[in-house]
Structure formats: C-alpha cells, structure tokens
Design brief:
- By secondary structure, this protein is mainly alpha-helical.
- The chain folds into 3 domains: 5-94, no CATH class; 117-221; 232-423, hpI Integrase, Chain A.
- The protein contains 15 helices and 8 strands.
- The protein has helices at residues 62-94, 101-108, 117-130, 134-150, 164-176, 181-200, 232-240, 246-260, 266-271, 308-320, 339-363, 373-386, 391-398, 403-410, 415-422, and strands at 5-14, 20-28, 31-41, 46-47, 52-53, 277-280, 283-288, 302-305.
- The strands form 3 sheets. Strands 1-2-3 form a 3-stranded antiparallel β-sheet, with helices on one face. Strands 6-7-8 form a 3-stranded antiparallel β-sheet. A two-stranded antiparallel sheet has the order 4-5.
- A hairpin with a 2-residue loop joins β2 and β3 (31-41).
- The longest helix is centred in the N-terminal third of the chain and has 33 residues, at 62-94.
- The chain is elongated.
C-alpha cells in the first residue's frame, strides 16, 4: 500500500550528468500526483526503502566529502518538504476539507488563491468573455454577485464547503430577497454547472456535491410562467394597423418579422448578416444557429424560407432605418462594434425595443397582457399547435436543443381550447 507522502526517484529519464530526479509523491484515494523538487540522485547513493540519500562515514577524499555534504543538504530539504506536506494535509483535516490533489498542489506550490470557488468562477467568467460567450459570462457573474451577498467570506470558501447545507442556506437567502422559483433556478443552474466543471477538472470532489438524486432538487423550483401568446384578434391588430409613431411602427415590423421567422429572438435577429442568406431549393433562406446555444454539441441550424411577407418587412425596415456593416436587420446602429461591445450594444437596443412595444400595445389597446419580445415567439409556437403541427416540427422551428423545452412552451393549453373541451360537460 502506497504511503500518502513519499519520495521516489525516477528511473526512466536522466539529466546531462546521468542523475535522476527525486520527486514528492502525494497519494489520495488511488490517485497520485508528483512534484518536482530540483533534487537529483543516482542509483548508488539513493536509499529507496528509506526514501533518502545514503550518507558515507569516514570520508577522506575532498570530492567525496563535498558530494557527501550535498547529500546531507538534500536529506535536510527532503525532511522539510515532508513536514510541509504533512502540515498542509493536517490543515485540510482541521478545517474538515475533503481536499483534492489539485488543492494540495495549490497549497504546496504557494498558489493559495486557486482551488477556491470565487477565483475559479472569476477565471471562468473571464474566459467566457474572451471567447465571445457574453450571455453566459453575465449569467455566471450575476450568480457570483448573489453568492457574495449571501456569504461575505466567499473568497475563502473551497469547493468542498459548497455542500448541501450551504446550498439550502443560499435558497433561504434568495427567498427572503423575494426571488421566485424561476429566478432561484437561474442561480442554482449556474452554480451546479460550475461545480460540475470543477469536478471534471479535478478541482473539486463529488463527496460534498450538493445536487443530484439525494441532494438539492433544482427542477422543483420551476414555476409555470404567465402565458405570453396573443389571441388571434390581437395578432390581427398588429398585422393590419400601421402605427402613428415611427418608433412604434419600427417595433411593430420587428415583431412581425420575428413571428414570420419562426419566432426568431431579438438577439438572433440582430446578429443576422448577409452570409446568413443562402440560396437553395429554388429560393432564398435565412440560415442561422441560435446565439445562446450555437456552441453546444449537435445544434442544428434553423432554415427559414424568405417569403414575400418577410422580404417586404426587411425592405420596409431598411428603407426607414439603414443597416450598418453587413447586418440585414436594422438593429445594430453603430458600425465597427465586435465582441462584448457589440453584445452590450444589442442589449441596449433590446431594452428600447421592449419600450416601443409597450407603447404600441397601449396604442392598439392591448391592455390585458404585456407585449414583449418573447410574445412573438410564443404566439408563433401556439399558432402552429392550434393548427395541428407536430411538436417535433415546432421544436425544430424554434431551434430548441431538446423536446423538454418545447413541451414547457406548449403543455398549458390556451383558454379557448379548455373552454371548448368544457362544453362536453353540458352536452351529456
């Protein structure tokens, strides 16, 4: 059985002097990790059993004396390294930390900031921003900010301390702040994703993992959201009523463009460029991947045939609001933006668009529901379902990664369907 702390000499690779590196080996739960110490030995003077250098007695030769003294110094260093390793492990044990080999390495190599959840999340957020995943970066940043509000000592927390007790306390904290189930779900999904990533990268252990079959159940937080699809009469109002104000008319046309383009989101509309228009099957198509899941494995592109209605809306929008660069929908209004700057610009335009939609709803006397960017998407999906289009086809048109999301959209029937079904009760 291997000792938790030991020193071993390599036997495969020698340096220029024909000596082999002596390394510190740390073992835990059948896993091991080696640490270079800048100490070298040969077979003659290395005591494998006692894990130290052999010291000669009664040495008279000057060169041998010097080499003997060097081996004594090496033994002293090995003893210091052993004590240091023991102190680190004992420190973990005192704090009831189920440490990983990576956490030991952080402590042994004086990288004390690593192996802790806050720094790990900050590094992940930075990577996401640098690779253009701005939406995901913002999600993790919001979660980290909320965790810091919950725990003022989060910068000292290691992964093993993010256990079921911590998670339950965080949930109570969010409830006291007035967060509803879906908002709490948003934070917990981000936290779970970070822990899963850390476990995969050996930064965390599964022993204190707070989610899973016997742990905190995130899906139980799901709340049915208010229905966000338009009755037919409201949809016809938007189709047939030209607004008196240019900003509202701009919003009306964007809303209809989204509706006809299979409920394309505002963000995805904003990112559409000339190269997203492709010719095949005797016509032109808008072909794109949803921005929020474009990097996920197996995501298929959405293909939207450009009909006369879509073509007319694009021409009309561009006539009054010229596009910049090679965008095809006039949402981005400043040329040259890329990366996070472009994303933030689009988010700013998104807020203005929702404001214009609110004004349009008031003008058209749509008073019993809030008109937002999501309404066109939900209305399109519900209209397809009312006309007996299969859920598999609807899911493909929406660009959902799985049917579960589509079913969430469609599982609750609108009141007209329920009302018709209820007539059976009176026809008996």
């Amino acid at each position: 059985m291997l000792s938790m702390i030991s020193f071993v000499k390599r036997n495969d690779i020698a340096n220029a002097q024909g000596l082999y590196a002596v390394r510190l080996r740390i073992c835990k739960e059948r896993q091991r990790r080696y640490f270079s110490l800048n100490i070298f030995a040969d077979n003659e003077y290395w005591d494998e059993k006692n894990e130290c250098f052999r010291i000669l007695k009664n040495v008279r030769d000057i060169k041998q004396k010097e080499e003997n003294e060097q081996r004594k110094r090496y033994n002293y260093l090995l003893n210091c390294y052993r004590l240091r390793a023991q102190e680190i492990i004992e420190g973990f044990q005192r704090e009831n930390i189920d440490w990983t080999l990576n956490q030991f390495a952080d402590a042994f190599l004086n990288k004390s900031k690593q192996g802790k959840i806050k720094v790990y999340m900050e590094n992940h957020i930075k990577t996401l921003r640098e690779t253009g995943h701005i939406g995901n970066a913002n999600c993790y940043a919001a979660t980290l900010n909320m965790l810091e509000h919950y725990d003022s000592r989060l910068d000292q927390k290691t992964f093993s301390e993010i256990d079921i007790k911590f998670v339950n306390g965080f949930d109570v904290f969010l409830q006291k702040r007035g967060c509803k189930g879906n908002t709490r779900k948003y934070y917990f999904k981000a936290l779970r994703s970070i822990l899963n990533k850390a476990i995969l990268e050996k930064e965390a252990t599964e022993k204190t993992y707070p989610f899973g079959k016997a742990g905190f159940q995130i899906e139980k937080l799901t709340e049915e959201t208010e229905k966000r699809y338009l009755p037919v009469e409201y949809l016809n109002k938007i189709k047939n009523t030209v607004s008196e104000k240019p900003q509202r008319e701009y919003a009306r046309k964007l809303f209809l463009l989204s509706y006809y383009c299979y409920g394309i989101s505002f963000i995805d509309m904003a990112y559409l460029r000339r190269n997203n228009i492709v010719k095949f099957n005797g016509g032109e198509y808008i072909v794109y991947k949803r921005h929020k899941i474009q990097h996920q494995k197996g995501v298929k592109p959405i293909k939207i045939k450009i009909t006369k209605e879509i073509e007319h809306l694009l021409d009309s929008l561009n006539k009054n609001n010229p596009t910049v660069d090679d965008f095809i929908v006039p949402i981005v209004s400043i040329s040259g933006y890329t990366g996070e700057k472009l994303y933030n610009h689009i988010r700013g335009r998104y807020k203005k668009y929702n404001g214009y939609l609110a004004e349009l709803a008031e003008e058209l006397q749509i008073t019993d529901m809030k008109l937002t960017t999501y309404v066109s998407r939900h209305t399109m999906a519900m209209m397809l379902q009312r006309n007996d289009i299969s859920r598999e086809q609807i899911s493909q048109m929406l660009g959902h990664a799985d049917m579960k999301t589509t079913n969430t959209y469609l599982d609750s029937f609108d009141t007209t369907v329920i009302d018709e079904a209820a007539k059976v009760l009176y026809d008996v």
